[in-house]
Design goal:
Length: 392
């Protein structure tokens, strides 16, 4: 038999929930049985109830506040098991209410100046990727980690109209690479592909940016976006899945967490206490963008930063094929899933859209072991503003 109270004393940040269960084998023949369960044991508890033939009819906070879950789960439909409920979230967007957007618009852009334009791909790597730093001193442009800016390339399109702006994720913290509030940086890959006629086509804006020289002027709009912003708490866990230039916002997060000068500039956020885990997919070692920076941070903060590469053309997965980001996620799915279940964990995905299904499949398999439907759990995390995706 179950003890009707399965949780110990409630710890800080770990609420207790009351489960109402009917039909439990060995339990009451009629009526409901109630169990108090700590938040971090909810997944395991729900699966156990299913295995014992029980049916969860209601879940409420044990302190008597408003119910957060009302669901039905049975052994005949294990996929309907109750997912862990998070503590009630703050009003949506409240933590970032003061973050500004669209300070500069296409009809009145900021004229910035190129300070530097540096190669990021090492010798023998694939393609061209540049780190560009722009001078925005004296402007009104303010941004935070996870936002984007627009770039308006000069010239006209095939219809003779002015080129439209392109959005790029910002690769620097709110204080800029020089931590003086006077710059903004981008990580840009030159787009190149073959059209149906076999002709090589290069991206209008990416080629323009990659060819800029120090002193050149550039038209900037924004900032835009609140989807990829970091939570303000220093003890938040952050999981990052990135491919290629999707590393841009992740670099900004990691600088904010671990760079000495950056930490000194943020008295309200200068002692990151959580766990940050970056899973970074690239074609070969020469394409590991910001490699030295990343590995220095891992070496200095091994208890707070974990770095995992998926190098497709050099590493093999368990089946002998190329190693992609979804294979690394599958290898570490138990640890990642346990982190994701923590209400203090935020997950960020940035880069090629093609990596999403593999990530979802690997993590969904772990969720299913506990009777949890992955898509429902993701939906709940989005409502809690701790599942962040920006792919293309």
């Amino acid at each position: 038999m179950f003890n009707s109270s399965t949780s110990g004393p409630q710890s800080s940040g770990n609420r207790t929930y009351r489960y109402e269960v009917v039909g439990l084998q060995g339990g009451r023949r009629s009526g409901s049985t109630f169990f108090d369960v700590a938040y971090d044991r909810m997944s395991t508890f729900a699966q156990t109830i299913l295995a014992r033939g029980g049916k969860i009819v209601n879940v409420t906070p044990a302190d008597g506040s408003t119910p957060v879950v009302t669901a039905v789960a049975s052994t005949s439909t294990p996929e309907a098991a109750v997912a862990p409920a998070a503590a009630p979230a703050a009003k949506k967007g409240a933590a970032h209410a003061n973050v500004k957007v669209n300070i500069y618009r296409p009809n009145n852009p900021l004229t910035g100046k190129v300070i530097s334009n540096d190669f990021l791909v090492a010798e023998g790597g694939v393609g061209i990727v540049q780190h560009l730093k722009f001078d925005i001193a004296g402007s009104d442009l303010e941004y935070v980690e996870g936002q984007s800016i627009g770039i308006i390339p000069p010239g006209t399109d095939a219809k003779g109209k002015p080129n439209k702006l392109r959005l790029y994720s910002i690769a620097s913290t709110r204080h800029g690479d020089d931590v003086d509030d006077k710059t903004v940086s981008l990580c840009v890959r030159e787009l190149e592909y073959k059209n149906d006629a076999g002709e090589t086509i290069k991206g209008v804006c990416s080629s323009y940016l990659c060819a800029l020289k120090p002193g050149d002027e550039v038209q900037i709009t924004g900032p835009t976006g609140k989807e990829m912003l970091l939570p303000p708490e220093e003890d938040t866990n952050v999981i990052m899945f990135a491919t290629g230039t999707g590393i841009a916002p992740m670099r900004a997060y990691l600088w904010r967490m671990f760079k000495d000068n950056e930490r000194a500039a943020n008295p309200e956020y200068n002692n990151y206490k959580g766990m940050a885990w970056l899973v970074f997919g690239v074609p070969q070692t020469a394409n590991i963008l910001y490699k030295q920076e990343l590995e220095e941070m891992q070496e200095r903060y091994p208890d707070n930063f974990r770095l995992t590469y998926a190098i497709s053309r050099e590493q093999q997965n368990s089946e002998g094929g190329r190693m992609y980001i979804q294979h690394r996620v599958a290898e570490n799915s138990v640890e990642l899933w346990n982190m994701i279940k923590n209400s203090k964990t935020h997950t960020y995905i940035c880069g090629l859209r093609g990596m999403e299904p593999g990530i979802e499949e690997a993590l969904g398999a772990e969720a299913a072991k506990e009777g949890i439907v992955w898509k429902d759990y993701v939906r709940a995390m989005k409502k809690e503003e701790r599942w962040h995706v920006e792919t293309y």
